[in-house]
Amino acid sequence: MRVLPLSFAVVLAVASALGGLLVLPGGARAQQQASPGTASSSGGSLSQDDIARMLPSTDMGANAARNADPHLAPVNDSPATPFDAAPIPHNPLAPDAQAIGAKTCVACHSLENVQASHSLHVASFRAGAANTGPQAACESCHGPGSEHAKNPTAPGSIIAFTHGSATTPQTQQEVCLGCHAGGARQHWIGSVHQERGLSCSDCHNPMARLSPEGVLAKPSINEVCATCHKDIMAKFNRRSHMPLPEGQMSCVDCHNPHGTLTRPLLKTDTVNETCYTCHAEKRGPFLFEHAPVRESCLNCHDPHGSNQQTLLVAPLPMLCQQCHTMTRHPNDLQVPTNLGNGSTPDERLMGRACLTCHTNIHGSNNPSGSRFHK
Ligand code: HEC
Ligand code: HEC
Ligand code: HEC
Ligand code: HEC
Ligand code: HEC
Ligand code: HEC
Ligand code: HEC
Ligand code: HEC
Ligand code: HEC
Ligand code: HEC
C-alpha cells in the first residue's frame, strides 16, 4: 500500500511524457504550415517545441502531483525564456563590451567547446535558428566578449562562474535567473543557500553533460547535495532509512534547494504535509488521534535515518515513556527483574514493547480504539 502514491507519481510522469509526444508534434506541424517561410522550419532543423519535447521532465516543485492534491497550494511554474529569445546579460565589470559571437570564443576555447557541445544549453542554441541561436551560444551566459577577446587575462572582462573569479555570485545568479526566474526559484533570493553565498553553478554545470537530467554538476541529485552535506548523507547509511541510497528517492523529494517559505527548505508548508505526500494513509482523519502524531512526525521519527527500528528517534519503550510516565502502567517498569532474562519478565519491555498492545500508534478508527489497541 505504501508504495502506491509513488507509483501513481510514476504513472503521472509517464502519462504527461506520452501526452507531450502525442500532442506536440501536431502543434509543431500546425506551426510549420502557418509559417512555411521561416528559417526554423527549413532544412530539418529543430523548433523550440521539438527541443521542449525532447527534454526530460523535471519536477522540482512536484508540480503534477502537487497541483492535483487539494491539500497543497498549487505551484506556478513559469517556463524558461526560450533559447531563440536569449538576452545577452550585462557584465558590470565590462560595461562597454560588445557581443562578438560564439565562433570567436570557440577559436580560443576549443577544448571547452568540445565538452559543451554535448550539453543541453549549447546543443540547444546550436539547434536554433541560423543567426540568433548559434551566435548566442556562449555570450548568453558569459556576457559580451569584445573586451575579453582583446585582453583575455583581465579579471572580470568576461562573466565567470567559479568562486575564485572576479565576477560576484550576484552577477552569476542574475545570468541564470534572467531566463529561469519564478517557478521553483521564486524564493531563491533570501534562501539559506543564496545567503550563504552559493551560486547556481555550485550545483549545476551547464558546460558538460554530467547528469542525465537537471544539468547537474554531479551524476545524481544526492551526490550534488553530498558534496556539502556529508553528515546528512551519512545518516542514510544507518540501520533504518528510507530508500534514498538505493536510488529510489532523492533529497529534493522533500527539500527544494532553491528556497522555500518553510524551514528547512521543505517543499510543503509543514513537516507532516511533506510526509503525507508519500505516506497518505497517515493523514487520517482518525476517530482517535494520537496528539504527537498530529503535531509532528518528527516527535518520533528522524527522516534522514536512525539506528533504531523504523526511523525512531529513541528505542522502545523509552520513546513512549518520554511522554507517558504517569500512566496506569507501573512507573518502575525498567528494573532488572522485568527484563527478558530476569525473574519476572514484563512483556511491556520485550519484543515490540508497548506496541504489542498499542498497535495502531498513529491513530485508530475503531469505536473502541481510544487506547490505540485496535
Ligand atoms: C583570444 C583568445 C580568446 C578569446 C577570443 C576568448 N577567450 Fe576566454 N579566455 C582566454 C584565455 C587565455 C583565458 C584564461 C585567462 C586567465 O587564465 O587569466 C580565458 C578565460 C576565460 C574564462 C574564465 C575567466 C575567469 O575569470 O576565470 C571564461 C569564462 C572565458 N574565457 C569565456 C570566453 C567566452 C565566452 C568567449 C567569447 C565571447 C571567450 N572566452 C573568448 C582566451 C580567449
Ligand atoms: C548556460 C550557460 C552557459 C553557456 C551557454 C556557456 N557557459 Fe561556459 N560556463 C558556464 C558555467 C556555469 C561555468 C562554470 C562551470 C564550473 O562550475 O566549472 C562555465 C565555465 C566556462 C569556462 C571555464 C572558465 C572558468 O571559470 O574556469 C569557459 C572557458 C567557458 N565556460 C566557455 C564557454 C564557451 C566557449 C561557451 C560556448 C561554446 C560557453 N562557455 C557556454 C555557463 C555557460
Ligand atoms: C537564454 C536563456 C537561458 C539561460 C541564460 C540559462 N538557461 Fe537554463 N535553460 C534554458 C532553456 C530554454 C531550458 C530548457 C527548457 C526548460 O527546461 O525549461 C533550460 C534548461 C535548464 C535546466 C533544466 C534541464 C532539465 O534537464 O530539465 C537547468 C537545470 C538549467 N537550465 C540551469 C541553468 C543555469 C544554472 C544557468 C546559468 C549558468 C542557465 N540555465 C542559463 C534557458 C536558459
Ligand atoms: C543547492 C543546489 C542547487 C542550487 C544552488 C541551485 N540548484 Fe537548480 N536544481 C538543483 C537540483 C538538485 C535540481 C533538480 C534536478 C532534477 O530534477 O533532475 C535543480 C533543478 C533546476 C532546474 C530544472 C527544474 C525546474 O525547476 O525547472 C532549473 C531550471 C534550475 N535548477 C535552475 C537553477 C538556477 C537558475 C539556480 C541559481 C539561481 C539554481 N538552479 C541553483 C540544485 C540546485
Ligand atoms: C556548495 C555547498 C552546498 C551544496 C552543494 C548544498 N548545500 Fe545545502 N546548505 C549549504 C550551506 C552552507 C547551508 C547553511 C548551513 C547552516 O547555516 O548551518 C545549507 C543549508 C541547507 C539546509 C538547511 C536549511 C535551513 O533552513 O536550515 C537544507 C535543507 C539544505 N541545505 C539542503 C540541500 C540540498 C537538498 C542540497 C542538494 C540539492 C544541498 N543542500 C546542496 C551548502 C550546500
Ligand atoms: C523524507 C523527507 C526528507 C528527505 C528525503 C531528506 N530530508 Fe532533509 N530534512 C527533512 C525534514 C523533515 C527536516 C527537518 C528536521 C528537523 O527540523 O529536525 C530536514 C532537515 C534537513 C537539514 C537541516 C538540518 C538538520 O540537520 O536536520 C538539512 C541540511 C537537510 N535536511 C539536508 C538533506 C539532504 C542533503 C538530503 C539528501 C541526502 C535530505 N535532507 C533528505 C526531510 C527530508
Ligand atoms: C517521496 C516519498 C516519501 C516521502 C516524502 C516520505 N517517505 Fe517515508 N518512506 C518512503 C518509502 C519509499 C519508504 C520505504 C517503504 C517500504 O520499504 O515499504 C518509506 C519508509 C518510511 C518509514 C519506515 C522505515 C522502516 O525502516 O521501515 C518511516 C518511519 C517513514 N518512511 C517516515 C517518513 C516521515 C516521518 C516522512 C516525512 C518527514 C516521510 N517518511 C516522507 C517514501 C517517502
Ligand atoms: C508517537 C510516536 C510516533 C509519531 C509521532 C509518528 N510515528 Fe510513525 N511510527 C511510530 C512507531 C512506534 C512505529 C513502528 C510501528 C511498528 O513497528 O508497528 C512507526 C512506524 C511508522 C511507519 C512504518 C510502518 C507503518 O505503519 O507504515 C511509517 C511509514 C510511519 N511511522 C510514518 C509516520 C508519519 C508519516 C508520521 C507523521 C504523520 C508518524 N509516523 C508519526 C511512532 C510514531
Ligand atoms: C511526544 C510525546 C508522546 C510520545 C513520544 C508518545 N505519546 Fe502517547 N500520547 C501523548 C499525548 C499528548 C497523548 C494524549 C493524552 C491525553 O489526551 O490525555 C497521548 C495519548 C496516548 C494514548 C491514549 C491514552 C489516553 O489517555 O487517551 C496511548 C495508549 C498512548 N499515547 C500510547 C503511546 C505509545 C505506546 C507511545 C510509544 C510508541 C506513545 N504514546 C508515545 C504524547 C506522546
Ligand atoms: C499487555 C498489553 C499492554 C502493554 C504491553 C502496554 N499497555 Fe498500555 N494499556 C494497556 C491497556 C489494556 C490499557 C487500557 C486500560 C484501560 O483503559 O483501563 C492501556 C492504557 C494505556 C494508556 C492510557 C492510560 C490511561 O491513564 O488511560 C497509556 C498512556 C499507555 N497504556 C501507555 C503504554 C506504554 C507507554 C507502554 C509501554 C511502556 C504500554 N502502554 C504497554 C495494555 C498494554
Automatic annotation (TrEMBL):
Keyword Signal recorded: yes
Region listing for Disordered, in residue ranges: 61-90
InterPro entries: Decahaem_cyt-c_DmsE, Multihaem_cyt_sf, Multiheme_Cytochr_ET, Paired_CXXCH_1
Keyword entries, A-Z: Signal
Transmembrane annotation, as ranges: none
Annotated Pfam families: Paired_CXXCH_1
Highest taxon of the lineage: Bacteria
Ranges where the Doubled CXXCH motif domain occurs: 199-233, 241-283, 290-327
NCBIfam families (alphabetical): decahem_SO, paired_CXXCH_1
PANTHER family: C-TYPE POLYHEME CYTOCHROME OMCC, DISSIMILATORY SULFITE REDUCTASE SIRA
Official protein name in the record: DmsE family decaheme c-type cytochrome
Species of the source: Fulvimonas soli
